[in-house]
């Protein structure tokens, strides 16, 4: 039963004319699917309704053709033809008594309009502010444009009502929405009645909310999402100015939705931000207004959530990532199953789906965005098929997730792990600076497996082919992972880098095994995700003189997709790491490396006593290939299938491994996967109907 300390999280609370059944508020979040995958997005939100959220929002919906953020895939509400897709979402959200919200966005200075080819409109004529420095500028809205824009918001509000929504969130945070662009002196340099004083800068949002209340306010609630602090220095909309704004406009929206300044700040990864990191910026705002306040902070602990409400910091617990990692978080708290919560690890892999315009993944919840495509439910799984037993070899994220899901299906499962401890790469990487929360990947799975009688764990069991053939398991799942390469093969070099053996070379595995370089260190990063930056910072803080060399124009380039790149660069500078960009390694010598410019091939020498090689990983697939070579012996050994999954098949981020493990478990005996792979698509796809 529910812990009474958490009762406060289940108190209903009014938002405008509506009543939220509890305090669990899924704030708008992107998912990479948007208008391209409306059924997939609707099903994903529907799962959250089932999981007990009181309020559930869409991602941003663009209200008019004059402002869109192609290439990013969000929702569109440009005309009546967009209503059915939105209606599908609201209907899914409203199951189980949740309120359905839609976030309306006019991107202003943030929308390059690549798709519609319209001239962008913004409070002040400035270059468009995007991740990619697009060579596009906006025209300043004139009075007629402002009148039009107010009408477009009203049109959009009327459409959202037809689409079945209860709440409208006006987007003015993260630098993305026009309301922030008007409020901030950085993006609003107007000299008319819409610029200058705070009262003038707040005029536009006041007008739009008044218009909308006239149009739909009798039945819908209007919320305003604003930045807690724009964090761009003197000109920006600061926390002090936000408080002044709220005080001046106490009753403006039906709810204040407080997000942090930039998206990077707001969705801070666990490497840089703790749970409830925005508390100081939010504290006290509630006393300025009688309207309810929602705030975010990667909340996964019910104790922290309850404290936030008890101490009057916020009224609603805003969650994006925690609701992705565990859509059933409210239900689990309600049922007294707190230990079953699949806590977000703060890796921001979910955000990469949006940033790469693909479809989002979650490291912790492999069913995210597969609810409709593959019919995967985060809490339910098909009973087992024809066979009985599975031997999972390797206990990294792939092996542990396979074992967890297989056990739920009812298979007899054994997990053999060569090391004395479980967890694979996660057990090792969680010990690196800033990555401890990533350990939740193994903690959650080991706990869940520990609750089940049909999984046996065998540590210290490095299996050979003969062992596997002797054990008598029907299905063999090989999740034996990968090892970092020392020879430099990655992107710059597809064959080993010419090297003098006198230069000591350390891989990330060596460092995680406790080996340490001596003297000056060159770290070569041709991997481009987090590992190079993490190790460079770590070694520098341990007292080494570290030079990080990378062929990329950015340190840890791929972390631009996880919104970490800027913070990583700052950390490296602070730690005293010398950063050399656009530079490769031509050859390795005793006491030095020869570098080459990525563009001109101009050579240089960097002296060092040690080289740390963060290049690529070699899959540990020897056991798999040896087993395949003994296929003639399978029948006698009782083996029906052998599959290679996770990093052992192809190394990737941890989310790829949990997905692979989950997929293995779902597909076993299902006919979806066969040795010859089949000729049909493995998931459902929304195909655009021809006009
Ligand atoms: P993934 O990310 O795909 O889950 P990991 O590298 O995290 O892969 O985990 C793989 C695990 O498999 C490691 O803990 C490793 O010790 C273990 N392993 C590798 N080969 C064998 C083997 N032959 N028998 C048992 N365990 C193995
Ligand atoms: Fe959390 Fe990572 Fe999942 Fe995103 S991908 S919800 S940050 S665990």
In terms of topology, how is this protein built?
Layout: E1 13-15, E2 18-20, E3 24-26, H1 38-50, E4 55-62, E5 75-76, H2 83-94, E6 99-105, E7 121-122, E8 139-140, H3 143-162, E9 167-172, H4 178-183, H5 198-201, H6 203-216, E10 221-227, H7 239-248, E11 255-259, H8 263-266, H9 279-282, E12 293-295, H10 302-310, E13 316-319, H11 321-325, H12 329-334, H13 349-355, E14 389-393, H14 397-409, E15 412-416, H15 425-429, H16 440-450, E16 455-458, H17 465-471, E17 475-478, E18 482-484, E19 505-506, H18 508-512, E20 521-525, H19 530-541, E21 546-549, H20 565-575, E22 578-580, E23 583-589, E24 592-597, E25 603-607, E26 610-614, E27 617-619, H21 622-629, H22 634-637, E28 641-644, H23 654-667
Parallel strand pairs: 3-4, 3-13, 4-5, 4-6, 6-9, 7-8, 9-10, 10-11, 11-12, 12-13, 14-15, 14-17, 15-16, 17-28, 19-26, 20-21, 20-26, 21-22
Antiparallel strand pairs: 1-2, 18-27, 23-24, 24-25
Helix pairs in contact: 1-2, 3-6, 14-16, 14-23, 19-20
The structure holds adenosine-5'-diphosphate (ADP) and iron/sulfur cluster (SF4).
Iron/sulfur cluster is lined by residues 321, 324-325, 344-350, 362-364.
Keywords: Flavoprotein, FMN, Iron, Iron-sulfur, Metal-binding, Oxidoreductase
GO molecular function: FMN binding; iron-sulfur cluster binding; metal ion binding; oxidoreductase activity
Family: In the N-terminal section; belongs to the NADH:flavin oxidoreductase/NADH oxidase family.
């Amino acid at each position: 039963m529910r812990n009474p300390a958490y009762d406060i999280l289940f108190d209903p609370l009014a938002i405008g004319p509506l009543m939220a059944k509890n305090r669990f508020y899924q704030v708008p979040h992107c998912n990479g699917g948007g208008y391209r995958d409306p059924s997939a997005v609707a099903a994903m939100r529907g799962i959250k309704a089932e999981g007990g959220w009181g309020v559930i929002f869409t991602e941003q919906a663009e209200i008019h053709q004059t402002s869109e953020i192609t290439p990013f895939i969000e929702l569109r509400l440009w005309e009546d033809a967009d209503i059915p897709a939105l209606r599908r979402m609201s209907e899914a959200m409203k199951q189980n008594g949740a309120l359905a919200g839609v976030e309306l966005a006019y991107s202003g200075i943030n929308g390059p309009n690549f798709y519609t080819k319209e001239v962008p409109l913004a409070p002040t004529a400035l270059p468009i502010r995007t991740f990619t420095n697009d060579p596009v500028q906006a025209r300043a809205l004139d009075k007629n444009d402002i009148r039009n824009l107010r009408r477009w918001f009203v049109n959009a509000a009327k459409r959202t009502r037809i689409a079945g929504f209860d709440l409208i969130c006006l987007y003015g945070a993260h630098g993305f929405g026009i309301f922030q662009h008007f409020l901030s002196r950085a993006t609003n340099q107007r000299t008319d009645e819409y610029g200058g004083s705070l009262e003038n800068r707040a005029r536009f949002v006041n007008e739009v909310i008044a218009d909308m209340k006239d149009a739909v306010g009798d039945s819908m609630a209007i919320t305003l999402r604003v930045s807690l602090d724009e964090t761009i220095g003197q000109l920006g909309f600061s926390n002090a100015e936000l408080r002044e704004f709220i005080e001046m406009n106490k009753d403006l929206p039906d709810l204040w939705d407080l997000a942090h300044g930039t998206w990077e700040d707001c969705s801070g990864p666990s490497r840089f931000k703790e749970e409830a990191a925005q508390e100081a910026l939010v504290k006290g705002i509630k006393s300025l207004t009688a309207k309810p306040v929602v705030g975010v902070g990667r909340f996964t602990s019910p104790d922290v959530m309850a404290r936030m409400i008890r101490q009057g910091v916020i009224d609603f617990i805003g969650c994006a990532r925690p609701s992705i990692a565990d859509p059933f978080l409210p239900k689990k708290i309600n049922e007294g199953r707190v230990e079953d919560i699949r806590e977000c690890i703060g890796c921001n892999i979910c955000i990469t789906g949006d940033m790469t315009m693909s479809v989002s993944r979650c490291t912790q919840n492999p069913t995210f965005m597969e609810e409709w495509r593959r019919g995967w439910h985060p809490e339910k799984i098909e009973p087992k098929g024809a066979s009985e037993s599975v031997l999972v070899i390797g206990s990294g994220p792939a092996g542990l997730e396979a074992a967890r899901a297989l056990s739920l299906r009812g298979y007899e499962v054994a997990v053999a792990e060569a090391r004395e401890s479980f967890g694979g790469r996660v057990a090792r990487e969680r010990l690196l600076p800033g990555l401890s929360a990533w350990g939740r990947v193994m903690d959650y799975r080991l706990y869940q497996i520990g609750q089940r009688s049909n999984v046996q764990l065998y540590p210290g069991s490095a299996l050979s082919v003969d062992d596997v053939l002797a054990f008598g398991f029907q299905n063999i799942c090989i999740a034996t992972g990968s090892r970092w390469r020392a020879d430099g093969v990655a992107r710059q070099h597809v064959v080993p880098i010419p090297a003098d053996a006198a230069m000591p070379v350390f891989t990330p595995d060596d460092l995680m095994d406790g080996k340490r370089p001596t003297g000056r260190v060159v770290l070569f990063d041709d991997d481009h995700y987090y590992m190079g930056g993490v190790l460079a910072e770590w070694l520098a803080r341990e007292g080494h003189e570290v030079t990080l060399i990378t062929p990329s124009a950015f340190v840890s380039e791929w972390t631009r997709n996880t919104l970490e790149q800027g913070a990583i660069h700052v950390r490296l500078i602070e730690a005293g790491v010398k950063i050399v960009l656009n530079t490769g390694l031509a050859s390795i010598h005793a006491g030095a490396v020869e570098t080459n410019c990525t563009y001109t091939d101009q050579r240089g020498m960097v002296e060092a006593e040690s080289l740390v090689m963060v290049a690529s990983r070699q899959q540990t697939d020897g056991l798999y290939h040896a087993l395949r070579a003994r296929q003639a012996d399978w029948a006698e050994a009782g083996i029906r299938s052998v599959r290679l999954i996770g990093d052992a098949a192809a190394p990737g981020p941890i989310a790829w491994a949990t997905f692979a493990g989950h997929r293995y478990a779902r597909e076993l005996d299902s006919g979806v996967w066969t040795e010859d792979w089949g000729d049909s698509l493995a998931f459902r796809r929304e195909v655009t109907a021809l006009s």
